[in-house]
Design goal:
two-stranded parallel sheet
Length: about 110
């Protein structure tokens, strides 16, 4: 598990192949604009960020599909850590389009071709 400032699509593909085959799990802190990747579970990445000063309300779990880079399917907004009734997010998906757009912007700023 590691926090990344930049990472290439090729590096993501290598991580995906070594873990799940086609996805990389990640947690994004939308306030600090940072991302942690390369853990078996989103909750581990979430815990890492919480231990390093992130706030729970700012953390969202996603799956990155390196093979789908450049498409709308590159980022999947699905994680158990996203179920947050107190934030009106009742499912595993990130339901708020504003938060989705923030995540897309952050990920696109970190992932390079």
């Amino acid at each position: 598990m590691k926090q990344v400032k930049t990472i290439s699509v090729r590096e993501l593909q290598n991580l995906a192949e070594s873990m799940y085959g086609d996805i990389v799990k990640a947690v994004v802190d939308i306030d600090k604009r940072i991302m942690v990747i390369d853990a078996e579970m989103h909750v581990d990445e979430e815990q890492y960020l919480l231990e390093n000063g992130s706030l729970q309300n700012s953390l969202w779990g996603i799956n990155i599909h390196p093979a789908k880079y450049g498409t709308n399917d590159f980022i999947e907004f699905d994680s158990m850590i996203n179920i947050r009734p107190r934030q009106q997010n009742m499912s595993r998906n990130v339901e708020n389009l504003n938060i989705q757009n923030q995540i897309i912007e952050i990920v696109n700023g970190i992932v390079t071709k």
